[in-house]
Amino acid sequence: MLLAYLRRKVGLTGTKYGCGGGGCGACTVMVSRYDPIQETVLHWSVTACLQPICSLHGAAVVTVEGIGSTKTKLHPVQERIAKAHGSQCGFCTPGMVMSMYTLLRNNPQPTMEDIRETLGGNLCRCTGYRPIIDGFKTFCNVRTVNSSNSHNNESDISGELFSMDNVLPLDPTQDLIFPPELLKKAERLCFQGEKVRWISPADLKDLIKLKAEYSNAPLLVGNTTIGWFQEEVHPSIHPSTNIHLTTLFYLGVTVGAGCSLSVLKDVLLQGIEELGPEKSRVYQALVQTLQCLASKQIRNMATIGGNILSANPKYDLSSILAAAECTLHIVSNGNANIFGIYLYIISHNFLFAILFFLIANPCALQWEFVSAFRQAQRREFSFSIVNSGMRVTFRHDSNVVENLDIFYGGVGPTLVKARHTCKELMGRYMGTQLLEEEIYVPPTAPGGQEEYRKALVLSFFFKFYMQVTLELQQKVGMNDLPLEYLSALKPFKNEVPQANHSFQLVPETQSSNDPVGRPNVHQAALQQATGEAVYYDDIPSVKGELFVSMVTSTRAHAKIISIDASMALAMSGVVTFISAKDVPGQNRRLWFNNPEELFAEEEIIGAIVAETREQAKRASEQVDITYEDIQPVFFTIEEAIEHQSFFDPKRKLERGNLEEGFEKADHILEGELYMGGQEHFYMETQGLIAIPKGEAGELELYVASQHAAYTQEVVGITLGIDSNKITCHVKRLGGGFGGKVMKIASLSAIAATAAYKTGRAVRCVLEREDDMLITSGRSPFLGKYKVGYLNDGTILAADITYYSNGGCTLDESSFIMEKALLHMDNGYKIPNLRGHGLVCKTYLPSYTAFRGFGGPQGLTIIESVLHEVAARCGLPAHQVRDINMYKDEKCYTHHKQLFSPHDMVRCWNECLEKSDYTHRCLSIKQFNAHNHWKKRGISIVPLKFGIGFSKGFYNQVAALVNIYKDGSVLISHGGTEMGQGINTKAIQIASRILKVPMSSIHIKETCTGNVPNAAPSAASFGTDAVGMAVKDGCEKLMRRLEPLIKKHPQFTWQQLVSKSDMQKISLSATGFFMGPHTSVDWEKSDGNAYYYFTFGACCSEVEIDCLTGDHKNIRTDIVMDVGRSINPALDVGQVEGGFVQGIGLYTIEELQFSPEGVLLTRGPSRYKIPALCDIPPQLNVHLLRNADNPHAIYSSKGIGEPPVFFGCTLFFAIKEAIAAARRERGLSESFPFSSPATAEKIRMACEDCFTRMNPPDRKVKTKPWAINV
C-alpha cells in the first residue's frame, strides 16, 4: 500500500499509520491525475493505507512534507492550524492538513460546509475539533467568534486565544505543479508481486478481454472494501480512468461503474440544480445518502460499481438505487445484459461480471415520491444499522397507491424487499398495518440489535408515510398531519462548531516578556503540522532491524497443552519464536503484591520475530496452540458477582450513620446504573524499538510510554539486568489517555526479550485491531444503590456498591476503584454515605487506566442517584442538585479531607447564568409540547475532582536544567509530552524565571538516563509536578548567577552566561518537587487523598428523534476553575478535548463482546469515537475568573482528566428528553437506562406502538450476539 511505501521506502513519515482501514484519516495524502476528457488535473484526498501502489501509475502524490516545512517555508494551512491551537498530540495533524490542502487546491475560497465535509473523515482524539475549524475557517473569510467580552464588563477578561494577524496569505500560484511527464495516455500495465499480479487495462475493450482471460480475477478500483482476496494468489484487474465517465441527461444519469462516489455526488447536485426540486427527487435522496456515506477520502476512492458489487446490506446505496428502479448494464463472458439492481444483488455471483453502466431516473412524475433513510452508530462516517429506500406512485389526483417499492438493508444477509406489503397496498390507501408482519430479524442475526432493527423498519416507513402525506395535502386535500408530527420529517443537520471562550488576562503590571498566563502556541505545533515531529515509529530503521508480532490466546480460560511454532518458523523471513522459556529473567513479577505475567495464558502467549512486519504478522497466525479448557469461564460483572470472583483488596468508605439516615427519610429508592467501558483509541498505536548496544548488556528503548521509569523497571526484571543499563527515550506520544502506562511495559519487555535473544534491534508496532484486543481500556462499572431522601429532594443517606470489571489480572483496577469511591460524593454533602468497591475478576483481557481513572464512573453513579431522586420528587434535577450541594466555607469530604467549595459554587452559578439555563428550560418545555416525535432535554452538573495521586510516593518528579555557553537552555524532566502541552508550560515557567525568551529554551525528550525514577504522567498532575521541578532547578541557577547579575547589571544574558562559565559557576542544576503526602486509611475512612480539587460545572442540551433514536448535541456551556492558568489556550483545549472524549464515553462508544468473550468492536469501522459531526454547534468554555490555588505552580490547577465527566450532561439530557416522550405517552418517567446512550437505547426507551409490535419471545432462550461485560 501507498502508506507503507511512503513511510518505509521513501522515508516520508509525516503520513501516519492510525488504523490501516481508512477509518481515521491520519494517512491522508493528495493524489492528482490528469483527466484527458476534461483536459484538466483533478486533485483528490485519499487514505494512503488503502491505496495500492500499482494503482498510482500516472498519478502525482503529495504528502504533508511536500507542501511546506519549518526549514523552508510553511504552507498557510500548516501555519494556521498551529496558530489556532489545533494541534495537541499532533498525530492526526498531517492528515488534517492534507485534507484541507486538497480542498484549497480544488476551491481556494471554500464555504464552511465545504470544510465540514472535507474534515468529516479525519478523526482527532485530543482537541475536540473546534480549534482545527477555527484555524481553517480563516480561509473562508469567516470571522472567528470570540465574543466573550459581550457577556461581561470586566476589562481583564478576553476571548481571543489566537491572532491571525500577519499570517501567510493563500497564494494558489505558488502551489506545486502537476509533473508534465504524467500527461500521457493510459496503456496496459502489468506488475508482478510475491502474491498478486496486478493488471491495468488500457481501455474498456482491453478490460473485457482481460476479464475473459482471467475469469476469477477481481476488479479493483478504489480498494476501500479491503481484505476479500488477501490470501489468494491470482491476478487483480484495475480498470483505467477512461471508463469512469458520467453524463447528465434530462431523463436520467448514466454512470460508469468506475465512477467515484464523490464524482457521482457532484453530478447529482448538478442535476438537482438543473431539474429543480420537484423533478429530481431520486437525485436528492441519493445525495442525502452519499453525504453520510463513509468519508470524503473514501468517497474519492470508492466507486459506485464497487459499492453495489460488494452487496453488503449495510452499504446504504443499494436500497435507494433499487427503490429508484435504477438499472445495471452488465458485460459478462462477452454478453451484454440489463438488470434491475435488486434482482442482480440477490441472484448473481459478483466476481464474474463487469458492472458497466447505471441509469437513474430523476423521478419527474408529479405523483411519484422517493425517500432514503438510514440510522447508524454515528451520523456520518459509519455503516448504517438499517437503511431503506422507498418509492411510491399514486393514481393521478388521489391518495390511492398505484405502485410501491420498499427496500431495506441491514435486516438480512442481503437487500430485502417488503414484497407482501407492497403488493397488498396497491389500490389502497397507504398505511403501516402490514409491514410489521413481513420483515423479520432473527435474534441470531449478525450484529444483534434485532428489536431495534425491527423498530427502525417500522419507523422508517412511518416517516415515509408522513412525508408523502404532507406532500399530498396540497394536492388532494388529505387530512392534515398533526403539526406536532412535522419536526420528525426534518433530519438533524450536521453543523460546524462555533465557540465562545473567556479567560482572565495577565495583570497589566506583568512584564510583556513574561509568557506565563498567556495563550502561547504548543511548542511543537509547527513541526507537527509539517510532519517533521518524530514519533517512535518515525525513527529510521536500524541496520538488521527485526519485527515482532504477538501471538494471543484464542481461549479465555484454558491450560496450554502445547505450542507448535514449526509452521511459522518454516515461513520466509521468520527468525524465531519467543515464549516464557526464552525470558532470561523473570516471566512473572509482582505489582503491589499481585502477580502479572509477561507471557500469560489469558493474553499474550508468545511472539514471532521476523525480517518484516508482514512476515511476522502472517507467521504469528500460523502458531498452533493446543488448549484444555478450564471451567468456569465468565466475562460479565453479574457472573462475577454470582461466582463471588473478586480481586483483593475490597474497599469501603463511610461517614455518618446510614441506619439513622434511612429511618428519617420520607422515601427509599433502590436502583442501579451500568456504565460500559471505553477504548483509548489514541491515534498512535502502542509500540517501541528495542536496540541492544552490544556492550555490557546495554539496551536502548525508543518507546511510546507515559511511564518510562516503569517500562525500564519491567524490562530490567524480565531480562535480569540492572536498570542502569536500560535507557528509555520518549520524544512524544500520539495520545496516551492512561493507556500507555502499564501495557506498554509488557510489550517493551517482549520486544527486549526478542532483541536479547537475537542480538538485533527489534521493532514492535501494534496494528489497530491488535492494540484494541491486547490493551483493553476503561473498566465497565455497575453501581447499585439504596437512597433515603426527603420530599424536597434532600438526600439523607446513600449506600452504594460499585462493581468494576477488572479482567483477568488486577493491573490498575484497584486504584481505579479507589478513585471511584473517593469521588462518590462529587459536590454533594450527603450526611450518611457509604460506598463499597469490588473489582470483579473475569476472563477478559485486563482493563487498565483511562483518562479520569475511576472518577467519571464514581461521579456518574451519584449523579444518577440525584437525577432519579429528582424524578421521583417531581422536581427539576438542578434544584435537587443545588439543595444537596456543599456550600459551607469549610467542608469535609466523606474521607474527611478539608476543602472549600466556594469556587465550585461560583462555577455552578456562572454556568447557570452563562448557559441561560432558566430561560432555555422554558423553551425546551414549549418545544416538547409542540413536537411529538422529537424531544429536547437539558442537564447541568457540578464537579469536584481530586488532583494528584492518592498514593503519596507518586507525587514527586525531578528536572534537569542545563545552560550552555551560547545562552541556550536545555530542559529534561520526568514528564511525558502527549499533547497536553507539558513541555510548552515547562518552557513558559523556565522563561519567566531565567528571563530569557521561550525560543532560547528547548526540551529534547524524556529520558530515564537524564531524569531517573519519574512518576507516570497521569492524574492531571504533570504540570504541577514538572512545573515545580523546573522552577526549582531554574531558581537554583539564578541563585548561582545572582552575584554576577548584581555586579554586571548591564550584561546581556549571553554575556552573563559566558562570564559565569569563565568563573567556573556550574550551569547545570537538578530541580526536584516533593509533593504532599497523600494517603487514605481505608479502615478509618480517613485521609487527604488529593493535593487539591479542580472544580467546574457543565450544561448541555440535546434533541432526540424518538422514531430512530438519533440525537443531536445542540449546545454545551462549561465553566472551569483552573486557578490562574499558565496557558489559557492549552487549558481550554484540554477542557474541550476531555469533554469530547466524554461525548464518546456517554453516547456512542460501545464495546461489544461475543458470548465467548471475543471483542467484536475492533477498529474504527465498528468502534466509533466522536467525529466532527458529534460536536455541539455551540461549545462554550469559560475559565473562572479570580480563582487561586495556593497548592500548585503559580496558582494553576490540573485540568487533563476532570472534563471527561462532563460528557454525562449529554447522557442525563438525553434521559430528560426520553422522559418527556414517555410522559406524553403516559409511561413512567423512571426507566432503566445505561451508558452509553446509543441510538438503540434511546429508541427502545421511547416506547410506542412500533416498539411494541412483534415483541421478542422471552421464553425462547437464544444466544445473544453481544453481551454487556
Automatic annotation (TrEMBL):
Residues 191-379 form the FAD-binding PCMH-type domain. Substrate binds at residue 853. Keywords: 2Fe-2S, FAD, Flavoprotein, Iron, Iron-sulfur, Membrane, Metal-binding, Molybdenum, Oxidoreductase, Transmembrane, Transmembrane helix. Binds 1 Mo-molybdopterin (Mo-MPT) cofactor per subunit. Binds 2 [2Fe-2S] clusters. It holds the Pfam family FAD_binding_5. Gene3D superfamilies: 3.10.20.30, 3.30.465.10, [2Fe-2S]-binding domain, Aldehyde oxidase/xanthine dehydrogenase, a/b hammerhead, Aldehyde oxidase/xanthine dehydrogenase, molybdopterin binding domain, CO dehydrogenase flavoprotein, C-terminal domain, Uridine Diphospho-n-acetylenolpyruvylglucosamine Reductase, domain 2. GO terms for molecular function: 2 iron, 2 sulfur cluster binding; FAD binding; iron ion binding; oxidoreductase activity. InterPro entries: 2Fe-2S-bd, 2Fe-2S-bd_dom_sf, 2Fe-2S_ferredoxin-like_sf, 2Fe-2S_ferredoxin-type, 2Fe2S_fd_BS, Ald_Oxase/Xan_DH_a/b, Ald_Oxase/Xan_DH_a/b_sf, Ald_Oxase/xanthine_DH-like. [2Fe-2S] cluster 2 binds at residues 89, 92, 124, 126. FAD binds at residues 219-226, 316, 355, 374. [2Fe-2S] cluster 1 binds at residues 19, 24, 27, 49. Mo-molybdopterin binds at residues 706, 737, 851, 1019. Residues 1-67 form the 2Fe-2S ferredoxin-type domain. Belongs to the xanthine dehydrogenase family. This is Aldehyde oxidase 5. It comes from Cyprinus carpio carpio. The lineage of its organism: Eukaryota, Metazoa, Chordata, Craniata, Vertebrata.
